[in-house]
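Re: weekly structure request thread

Next one in the queue (64 aa):
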Amino acid sequence: MELEDIIYELTCLHESMLFCCEDRFGKEDPVFAHYRMALGRIVRDLEETERRIRTETASAKSRQ
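Done, posted below.
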């Protein structure tokens, strides 16, 4: 699986968790909220890594 595909799947999971963070009384479930927050950080880190890889790859190709 490509990094881009992994980021997409994790982003979709993160977005869907936004709808699962409340219990039946409308209160935020702290466990789901924590998972959502952690997953959001992972997605942002992976997106940054992907940008860095693309930049480094383009830079290496231009030097050749």
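The radius of gyration is 17 Å. The mean pLDDT is 87.
Next request, please.
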